[in-house]
């Protein structure tokens, strides 16, 4: 039988979120119901509420979550009832051209639940954020969106579901940072700090954090930055070169998503260095760079989708590093809140004073 639970929705563009009753159907073939234990409040959820993703309102918000499998549908073999899981929004198909080329992190046909969760009040179908919808007591997802990991603090490991994985993966998977390399990270919010922590884990010896907020630069130091640059006070490109023997960084991660900061990243890399764009630009943004500079510098200009992660490979590994004390997931949690405090958390987020607010259930 279906069940009715509490969840957080955005009913219309820019309207304050509401906690309402939501009907969750029993899982069908290839689906699972997960009892949510914790879910981070991500900028993407705010973008949904503001209509910045699409206009398929009402949205069931939340996607950065961990919990326990409560029920599975026919044919599900990757998880079973009782498993502790982190949810992911790129459940790979294994059959598309990217998967068949051995690049499943680029999967072009990722899975979501077939059935829809609905408003209890009138049966209106909900659009789950990133195909998950986890600001809710229990959610329905495709079973492939559940990644089984070792039992852990749900508030910490749930953050792998989006921002932390995006930043870590931008440095380690996309940027391929290796021992002894220099890394610069432009933008030191949650994603940028995760890139810094990833660079440290990978063995980078010079890790340069760039931001315009001294408080964020302090956070970056705590996650492993060896140097900080306030780009309102100093020329970021000049300082990065100064800190790297005059050459520029081997890898520059741009975690802002703006043309001016991408241009800084481009000129701050060494010859044959790598630039990784993980900050998300808006559709109206454009960038102009000299083609000769692109040719002459060599190296690589890359974008990073979800940290180019493969959840079944990366989530268990990162949870293991966390439990060993080598990857401080808990340090990304600024505050723990209830379902009824999501709107307040959005306001706090806009002030730039949190890495992550986490809803706990």
UniProtKB/TrEMBL annotation:
Keywords: Metal-binding, Oxidoreductase, Zinc
Coiled-coil regions listed in the entry: none
EC number per UniProt: 1.1.1.306
SMART domains: PKS_ER
Residue span(s) of domain Enoyl reductase (ER): 10-359
PROSITE patterns xrefs: ADH_ZINC
Any one GO molecular function term: mycothiol-dependent formaldehyde dehydrogenase activity
Cofactor entry: Zn(2+)
Entries under Pfam families matching the protein: ADH_N (PF08240), ADH_zinc_N (PF00107)
Matching InterPro entries: ADH-like_C, ADH-like_N, ADH_Zn_CS, ER, GroES-like_sf, MycoS_dep_FDH, NAD(P)-bd_dom_sf
SUPFAM superfamilies: GroES-like (SSF50129), NAD(P)-binding Rossmann-fold domains (SSF51735)
Entry keyword annotation includes Zinc: yes
UniProt cross-references to CDD domains, sorted A to Z: Zn_ADH_class_III (cd08279)
Entry keyword annotation includes Oxidoreductase: yes
NCBIfam families the UniProt entry points to: mycoS_dep_FDH
Family indicated by similarity: Belongs to the zinc-containing alcohol dehydrogenase family.
Protein name (record): S-(Hydroxymethyl)mycothiol dehydrogenase
